[in-house]
Amino acid sequence: MRILVAPDKFAGTLTAVEAAEAIAAGWRRHASTDELDLAPMADGGPGFVDVLQSTLGGELLAVTVSGPDRRPTPATVLLVGDTAYVESAQACGLALTGGCGAETATTYGVGELILAAADAGARRVVVGLGGSGTNDGGAGLLAALGASADRPLDQGGAGLTGITTLTMPKPLDVEIVAASDVDSPLTGLFGATKTYGPQKGLAEEQLPALDGALQDLASAADRRLALAPGAGAAGGLGYALLLLGAERRPGIALVAEAVDLPGRARRADLVVSGEGAFDFSSRSGKVPYGVAEVAAGAARPCVVLAGRVDVGAREMRALGVESAYSLVDLVGEEAALADPAGSLATLAERVARSWSR
Question: Which of 97, 134, 191, 282 is least surrounded by CB atoms within 10 angstroms?
């Protein structure tokens, strides 16, 4: 059989590349003659650059940018022809903030990544959004590109309170694409602060003031764009990119197109995806749902291997997945965390017994 292996990362344990390799290793134990095509995936969040580089190749440019606390932070720019791919989480991700200080964390380093890409000769810059530890509406990014205002733009969302004027930077001679599956607006009940702020360590009592600060930013810049789907992505980074004229594209669809996932699915007999937790929120732009849609378009079955499976058969079918298999159910949570790659390989071997002819 021809098996397309297209998992996301298993957050906190395995990168998407590591997960694909573990699934392949386990599958081969049972079906050594099956042809395995590894296509690790990402949706724009952590791992975005690594996933694309593993498939597209290209040149990795090492740079140092400002982290969310303005300390120097290593990051990379992937150059493939005249297109550059950058990952916002490398400059302002939750892994850098430790889940605290989101009110003062800045996206300045993301702007520096875009500048580094432009300086390297890129004509198109794709910015992967997701996993941010910031909530500044992308004001830091704008500052790095040369924007100015009557309030500091590089001191996080808290520094934006009362902003009334914003002078945008000079246009860059590059096309910008925002890769994100988040469709929330910048502010309000379903905006960046109230929806994702608690995940970044913001206390409930901090949310109204910070949401108000982003409303002030929108009033100073463009209220209409603040309502656009995706403006609230990555703590409002999506809004700043929209202000710069960026095109917003679903992250999973962009990656799938870049690695020719539809064509590879048509050449496969079975598509295997995976992620840390497979639940009904997977419909909201997460990798297994996107992979299942591609598999359906190619008239191929899709199965999912996950750390946890929290959906029933009916919900699974609604997500376009034939079957889902739980790592924790097979080996237990302690073993799964102690040896994630080995445990995932064991699960893949078990699944191969059911699906490989």
Answer: 97
